[in-house]
Write a structure and sequence with these properties.
By secondary structure, the chain is an alpha/beta fold. It has 11 helices and 12 strands. The longest helix has 16 residues. The chain binds adenosine-5'-diphosphate and magnesium ion.
């Protein structure tokens, strides 16, 4: 179980870090094994920052992140390594996770070096083949290739194969579908479904509400770094209560509507708020439904 409790993140910005930008404000949620939780919201709402904090790529300014009850923030090298055995991330741009001068499958080999140094070559090769097959990659066509010889979808699936080699418990998936072509999209979505069946918890970060609706049991809607509405996906999307959520859902293109009928974008409707203040509290409005106070 991954838990975020009252998590805040502020970045120093401007010359000499003279100003602060609060990217995440008082965010709390849990992800149970075998559960997909979507974090949605427009660009700049703090989604990636949450993923980075979970992956310990950004420090937590205030609050706690726990994995099975143990605080995971601010720990030493050994604990970090043990943590990455259990929690891994895949990002929007898979190319950034590969070093162009090495063969792509080096990301798999480094798992052996760091975590399974005593596993024999034969056994390891078998493990690699199994994990590649699990993400529907043909070992023969991806092993020994350089990153530029593979597609974005192949590189992304190799990163998921890497996570499988580690037999992780939580996957942070940040906009991983957005850059894929339509045919690969459905493969990766189905793959996530299978991982979920295996008991993996997934933090699914997306600006695409239809993807969130398709893949997750629960959803967190973010705006200006804070949670505006959260709960069971069907409940929240079926009966959004916060004006921001309503606008966001209304701006999803629908098949029966012409593009020209689309309402104004949320950015136009909602100017940037004051990010430094405490966000309004969440009120329970249904069995699995919470909404931030709003005018
Ligand atoms: N390293 C950073 N330094 C300063 N500001 C940052 C940094 N990373 C993100 N931000 C700011 O934090 C806010 C949230 O960004 P981000 O988490 O990337 O949002 P999202 O993923 O929802 O688009 C944005 O205003 C962004 O400009
Ligand atoms: Mg982002």
């Amino acid at each position: 179980m991954l838990e975020l409790e009252h998590v805040w993140k502020s970045y120093r910005i401007g010359a000499l870090g003279s100003k602060r930008l609060t990217a995440v404000r008082d965010v709390s949620f849990q992800i149970a094994p075998g559960e997909v939780l979507s974090v949605v919201g427009e660009s700049g709402s703090g989604k990636t920052t949450i993923g980075k904090m979970v992956l310990q790529l950004a420090s937590v300014t205030r609050g706690t992140i726990r994995l099975d009850g143990a605080d995971v923030t601010a720990r030493g090298h050994r604990e970090r390594k043990a943590y990455y055995r259990r929690v891994q991330g895949v990002f929007q741009d898979p190319f950034s996770s590969y070093n162009p001068i090495f063969k792509a499958d080096r990301v798999l080999e480094t798992v052996r070096e760091s975590y399974f140094p005593r596993t024999g070559r034969g056994e390891w090769n078998e493990k690699v083949e199994n994990s590649l097959q699990a993400v529907r990659l043909d070992p023969g066509s991806v092993l020994g290739k350089y990153p530029h010889q593979l597609s974005g979808g192949q590189l992304q699936r190799m990163l998921i194969a890497r996570a499988l080699l580690l037999d992780i418990e939580v996957l942070v998936a940040d906009e991983i579908i957005s850059m894929l072509d339509a045919s690969t999209r459905i493969d990766v979505l189905n793959l996530l479904g299978e991982l979920k069946e295996r008991g993996l918890g997934v933090l699914f970060i997306t600006h695409d509400l239809s993807l969130a609706n398709y893949i997750s049991e629960r959803v967190v809607i973010m705006r200006h770094g804070a949670v505006v509405e959260t709960g069971a996906t069907g409940t929240v999307f079926g009966d959004p209560r916060h004006p921001y959520s309503r606008n966001l859902l209304a701006s999803v293109p629908q098949l029966h509507r012409k593009w020209s009928d689309d309402p104004a974008t949320p950015q136009e409707l909602e100017p940037d708020g004051d990010r430094s203040v405490d966000p309004p509290p969440l009120t329970r409005v249904g069995e699995q439904h919470w909404v931030a106070a709003h005018p």
